[in-house]
Amino acid sequence: MAHDPKEVLRSFLPTCERLWMDHQLYYQLFETNARTLALYEATAQMTFVDLNHILISHLIIGVCQITDPAKTMGHENLTTNFIIKKLSWPNDVLARRCGQND
Q: What gap in Å lies between CA 86 and CA 1, rounded to an integer?
């Protein structure tokens, strides 16, 4: 079955945007200056420790989901592997992309 590349990428974009926004949230909260981290520790240490773990776990799961196999148990997955394997690409682009999910 042929897939319309624009439609596939349009469908995949919200997932990538959400993952990027979640990463930005983590970065802005926890990859910050020492003063902010000390404030977290002084005000609600365990809350921020828990939030840090939740966000990291969420990001790991998100990255795993978008890099799942193109097909699982007979069902296609809208993932980077699906995009690489199921859409037509010029040979030079395909050669650069194939190793990125490994």
A: 9
pLDDT at 99: 65
For 10, what's the count of Cα atoms within 13 Å in the CB-facing half-sphere?
Answer: 5
CB-CB contact of 62 with 22 (8 Å): yes
H or E stretch at 71: strand 71-72
Distance of alpha carbon 86 from alpha carbon 9, whole angstroms:
12
Q: What is the pTM of this model?
A: 0.81
Residue 71, both tokens: 């097909």
Residue 91 has pLDDT above 90, yes or no: no
pLDDT tens digits along 14-33:
999 999 999 999 999 999 89
Q: What Å distances lie between residue 18 and 22, 59, 84, 88, 92, CA to CA?
A: 6, 10, 21, 26, 29
